[in-house]
Amino acid sequence: MNAAIKNEKLSNWIKEVADMCQPDNIYVCNGTKEEYNFMMAKLIASGSAIPLEKRPNSYLFRSDPSDVARVEDRTFISTSSKDEAGPTNNWIDPSELKEKMKRLYRGCMKGRTMYVIPFSMGPIGSPISKIGVEISDSPYVVCNMHIMTRVSSKVLDLLDAGRDFIPCLHSIGAPLKKGQEDVQWPCAPIESKYISHFPEENLIWSFGSGYGGNALLGKKCLALRIASAMAKREGWLAEHMLILRLTNPEGKQYHIAAAFPSACGKTNLAMMQPAVKGWKCECIGDDIAWMKIGANGRLYAINPESGFFGVAPGTSYDTNPMAMDTLKENVIFTNCALTDEGDVWWEGINDAVPSHLIDWKGRDWTPESKNDAAHPNARFTAPASQCPVICKDWENPEGVPIDIFIFGGRRGSVVPLVYEAFSWEHGVFLGATAASETTSANIGAVGNLRRDPFAMKPFCGYNMGDYFHHWLNMGEKLGSKAPRIFYVNWFRKSQEGKFLWPGFSDNSRVLKWMCDRVDGEVSAQKSPIGLLPLEGDIDLTGLNISAENMEELMSVDPAEWRAEIPDIEAHFAMFGKRLPEKLKHQLKDLITRL
Known about the structure:
The chain is α+β, with helices and mostly antiparallel strands. Helices cover 28% and strands 21% of the residues. The model has no long low-confidence stretch (mean pLDDT 96).
């Protein structure tokens, strides 16, 4: 082992894992640039990393075709009783799951190095931050964790000073026999993949997948599934939300946290260039928000991550110029296509389709090929500090005060462009009933309507009925200082199937209306579902959109909404006795108003 570990809990855990997994070597990470380069050199030598000539210090990886996304049916919340995990989670009894996984872990790191990765979620030392230590046998994971979290020997110093940590154990599940040649992307078959969480013990065990959040355990596993359970116990919020700062022409700042399911434009909104003159948008985070009530009674948020793990297909200078500028150097690309000039390419990056590419499976590709060149869930891992619109306060350990919450999803019909909740309780009802049409970021049929409460369905680490209670309780604690809650749908279509709203930078027009509502500058009209903008209150200056399209975008058809009720009732029925009475009343009130 290359470093002495003073913390007894950590030292014992490393020994226990090493005895079980039997690695050839143990390496303790320090988070330095030299370490990153050393890991990447190993990955280049093994043929896993392809250096990109066109982007300094950037590399392309191709995963195994069985290992390309979150595997929700192999993801478990293991609590003492099934009821604690709730109906939205897969549950296995903790002792049974541990036995099963210990058998898989036995000898799983033979022929490999075991990396010990000490990391902070959030600025090191922030009162809102948490410490994790991931043990992994994947240098790809080490490099990604360097970007996505704060890997540092300073974290070990905090542990020496008495701070606790969340143990995160990961293995790709592919031991090597003596002399056995490694493959480009080692992983276990799908039936051996387990992404397991033990929220009562603040413990994460992952086996068999080397991909994204299945392997970068600081991401969804710690920052949402375990953190949400910790947040309930400790009285704060861990949410699947972007955070942005909007500044109006007079210099007044507004902080917005928004929850959308994957592939609904979170990253685009977080890095938006406002179309409204004189307004400025800065990014604080694009995926996860941790929020605690400050001494002044307001809710303060940090981005616990230090990088972006974004979906590449569809990202372009038209849709998200700031993301494109973030990706110029120091980036890890996974499952993108490779150009003959040594650059990455994906569907939607630009209008020019190359005559030849190497696709994400390493095969020749031409425009006549039947398959996508990049996988629909191809990703980039990039340092947040490289984003041209990263907010100067994004690493402020105290966080930023939240003024507005936004929920939303991808709906071709029914849901208008924007509406405001009548109250905090009604806002929790909007979050609890949020729905979206599925995309390739979730495994399963594309285009089905899926209820995704608070965009947290795959990420809530305990019974979601209790999670709704927790949100209602947070509203009571915040009282008059609670953020205002809105619901948006950028994806409504015309009868002919065309998007009615241009989206992207024009979404700033909707955010400006929200800020005007917070400031009491504009009133709103009551509808059965919430408060709608009055005609003319959304600033459409310079936007070529017909009055008919605006009318359709904002229309609320009571008959269509009545047709939604049985689905909402079935969704709520899942939670049985755990569903808060206040949400039952909200549903009754909605039915009455319709």
